[in-house]
Design brief:
The protein has a five-stranded mixed sheet with strand order 2-3-1-4-5. The chain is flat, with a radius of gyration of 18 Å. The longest helix is centred in the first third of the chain and has 24 residues, at 2-25. It has helices spanning 2-25, 40-43, 53-60, 82-95, 121-127, 131-141, 146-152, 158-174; strands spanning 31-38, 64-65, 68-74, 101-107, 178-183. By secondary structure, the protein is α/β, with parallel strands linked by helices. It has eight helices and five strands.
Length: 189
């Protein structure tokens, strides 16, 4: 437990120090970044790679925002929930913390929310307090064993969707990203 705590503290402080160093080293970056999180609709399926809504947004601004060339970093993935995209965003921003960027969230269809309260949500949410435990839980959650189901509850529930969405928003704010959320008609009530 102590080593997890020390790792977490190092991750938080190291990330903030690295963010400042990276941004200083890339002051002359002439790009405006659009991060995209979502499912197949955000990738542009079935028309990707030719067309997607992030590409349309870039085109609407003539591929320039703030006199900078628009670069799209599409972290959306077919058939995945927000949790997997959180980890992609975490890795991307932690290693390459861009200073002039926005995050488009276009999610909800793949959450497959089941009706009813998720009785294991409180245990699940405790693990989310630490990045290390959250990642371990995420890797184990995909397993079909009854043991994991009893520990973590439903793979997707309305409580977990809200938590994941909030987690992404708070993380993006830590990196000063402007956030645009679009709601989708889907499995979320």
């Amino acid at each position: 437990i102590i080593s997890i705590f020390l790792f977490e503290v190092g991750l938080i402080h190291g990330g903030m120090i690295w963010k400042n160093i990276y941004r200083f080293m890339h002051q002359k970056d002439n790009n405006f970044y659009i991060y995209v999180i979502g499912e197949s609709t955000a990738t542009g399926y079935p028309y990707d790679p030719k067309i997607s809504f992030p590409k349309i947004a870039s085109f609407m601004f003539a591929d320039k925002i703030h006199n900078k060339k628009v670069k799209i970093i599409n972290l959306a993935f077919l058939g995945k929930s927000l949790e997997s995209q959180y980890w992609q965003l975490f890795k991307n921003l932690f290693i390459h913390p861009k200073s002039d960027a926005i995050l488009l969230i276009y999610a909800g269809i793949n959450e497959n929310v089941m009706n009813g309260y998720d009785s294991a949500f409180s245990q699940w949410s405790l693990m989310q307090k630490y990045a290390t435990l959250s990642k371990i839980q995420y890797l184990l959650e995909g397993k079909t064993s009854n043991i994991f189901f009893k520990l973590f509850g439903l793979n997707n529930s309305i409580e977990k969707y809200k938590y994941r969405l909030n987690k992404i928003i708070l993380f993006a704010k830590r990196y000063n990203l402007k956030i645009i959320i679009s709601t989708l008609v889907g499995n979320i009530t």
